[in-house]
Write a structure and sequence with these properties.
Elements (H helix, E strand, L loop, with lengths): L1 E2 L1 H7 L4 H8 L3 H8 L7 H10 L4 H4 E2 L3
Antiparallel strand pairs: 1-2
Length: about 60
């Protein structure tokens, strides 16, 4: 699944570790989501969307 997580994080000058702390996940989990190696669970996708004040569909794209 493609996503804009890395861009959104960079726009806020957050490290992967900082974003991970805000989401209560590991830095490795953030990296795996950013690189498309792992899709977030639905609850995590909602937390990400709330954190960035966006809709899930604005961050994640299921069209490959």
């Amino acid at each position: 699944m493609k996503n804009r997580l890395k861009v959104l994080r960079a726009e806020r000058d957050w490290s992967q570790a900082e974003l991970a702390g805000r989401l209560d996940v590991s830095r490795q989990a953030v990296n795996a989501i950013e690189t498309g190696k792992h899709d977030p669970s639905l609850p995590l996708a909602f937390r990400i969307a709330r954190l960035f004040d966006m809709k899930i569909e604005e961050i994640f794209d299921d069209e490959v």
